[in-house]
Structures are given as structure tokens and as C-alpha cells.
From TrEMBL:
<feature type="binding site">
    <location>
        <begin position="26"/>
        <end position="29"/>
    </location>
    <ligand>
        <name>substrate</name>
    </ligand>
</feature>
<keyword id="KW-0413">Isomerase</keyword>
<dbReference type="GO" id="GO:0004751">
    <property type="term" value="F:ribose-5-phosphate isomerase activity"/>
</dbReference>
<feature type="binding site">
    <location>
        <begin position="95"/>
        <end position="98"/>
    </location>
    <ligand>
        <name>substrate</name>
    </ligand>
</feature>
<protein>
    <recommendedName>
        <fullName>Ribose-5-phosphate isomerase A</fullName>
        <ecNumber>5.3.1.6</ecNumber>
    </recommendedName>
</protein>
<feature type="binding site">
    <location>
        <position position="122"/>
    </location>
    <ligand>
        <name>substrate</name>
    </ligand>
</feature>
<dbReference type="InterPro" id="IPR004788">
    <property type="entry name" value="Ribose5P_isomerase_type_A"/>
</dbReference>
<dbReference type="GO" id="GO:0006014">
    <property type="term" value="P:D-ribose metabolic process"/>
</dbReference>
<comment type="subunit">
    <text>Homodimer.</text>
</comment>
<feature type="active site" description="Proton acceptor">
    <location>
        <position position="104"/>
    </location>
</feature>
<comment type="similarity">
    <text>Belongs to the ribose 5-phosphate isomerase family.</text>
</comment>
<dbReference type="InterPro" id="IPR020672">
    <property type="entry name" value="Ribose5P_isomerase_typA_subgr"/>
</dbReference>
<dbReference type="GO" id="GO:0009052">
    <property type="term" value="P:pentose-phosphate shunt, non-oxidative branch"/>
</dbReference>
<dbReference type="GO" id="GO:0005829">
    <property type="term" value="C:cytosol"/>
</dbReference>
<comment type="function">
    <text>Catalyzes the reversible conversion of ribose-5-phosphate to ribulose 5-phosphate.</text>
</comment>
<dbReference type="InterPro" id="IPR037171">
    <property type="entry name" value="NagB/RpiA_transferase-like"/>
</dbReference>
<dbReference type="Pfam" id="PF06026">
    <property type="entry name" value="Rib_5-P_isom_A"/>
</dbReference>
Amino acid sequence: MDNGKLAAAKQALDYMPNQGVIGLGSGSTASIFIELLSQKVQAEQLDIMCVATSTQSQKLGAQLGLNVVDIDEVDRIDITVDGADEVDPDLNGIKGGGAALLFEKIVALNSNRNIWVVDPSKEHKRLGQFKLPIEVIKFGSHHLYRHFEKLGLSPSYRQTNGEYLLTDSNNYIIDVDVSGVDDLTALATQLDQLTGVVEHGLFLNICDELIVGGQ
Ligand code: 5RP
């Protein structure tokens, strides 16, 4: 197990309330946190409900005995603990390496506090080394692909075993290169307005607290 990820996930336990709703992130670091959280909840008999950001996290949490409920069964999420693919010094980030960006953003935006748990390799002065995932509906996606090409974003469909990868919502992911984009806020606004784009992995002004493990 990656020591930085483990250390970050462990530290996030300190933020857990005795009672409340916790958002479970997705990815390897979030999975370590889910495992540690389940141990803490059982050992301390905490009154914790959870909502998940992916089918994978939902299954993992439930398997480990956490009370994972549908997001629409709760009014608000107290704290969400999630990973990230890249984070800059202002706590803006790129997420979606695990293709869970849509549910991750919905859960994050409905959380009172968002904590990201990362290892030091995720910290970058400037975002863009990691390809930005854009979730698009299948219908007309080739037109969006060509639009991204024209914008100079060198798009590529995310694939697995030679097939286009499908997200939990049955959409495609197009990864784009934003290393040459100066104004990512403007790009986020542009993507928010594009019909056919379901969500993108620019998480700007969402993270409240960053825990970097193993520094
Ligand atoms: C999934 C995500 C993950 O949080 C991100 O990819 C980080 O994953 P890991 O902790 O495995 O490095 O955004 O969509």
C-alpha cells in the first residue's frame, strides 16, 4: 500500500464527527479511507451514514459494513473525503482519473466540507500535467470530440479493453490536454455551457482542506 495515501487517509479520520453524514470519495486513496472509516465506526460505535461517489465506493462501503444510503435520502452531507489527480496551491484540482467525476462533483457540491487526501505526487504549481476528463453523453459525442480538437485540446476517448469506457451513468469520457490553457476558470465556464457535456473534472474552489500524506 502507498505510504503517502495511507498517511493522508489516516489523518482524515481526525475530522470525522461522532454522528453525521460522510461522503465517500472514489479511487485508491479514498478506498483506503473507506476501510479505515469502517474500522473506526465499528470500534467506536459511531452514528454515521454515508453516501458514495461511485458504484465502486458504494459496494466497498457496504461490504465493510458502513451504512451507505442514496444521496437523495439525506438533506446534506457533513464532510466528504475524496482523492484528487492534481492539486494546485490554491486547492483547485483535476479529478476524474477513476471516471467518477460526475457523482464526485454532485456529492462535493452538497457537502458542508470537502477534504482531499493525496500523496505528494499530486501537488503541482499549475494544473494540466494530468489530462482533464470530460464526461459526455454518447449521442453526438464525436462532434464534441472535434470541437475539442479545434480548441487545440488534443482529445482522446478513454478506453478499456479496446472499448470506450462507460461511466456509472453510461456516458463516455473524453480526456483533453489543458497544459496549454492559461485560464482554466474560463475553460470550466465554457465546458459548463456546452450541450452534451455532462460534467468535467475541473474542481475549482471546492476543496476546503488538503491532506498530503507522507511529506
Ligand atoms: C476518481 C477520482 C480520484 O479521486 C482520483 O483519480 C484519485 O485517485 P487515486 O487516489 O487512486 O490516486 O477523481 O474519479
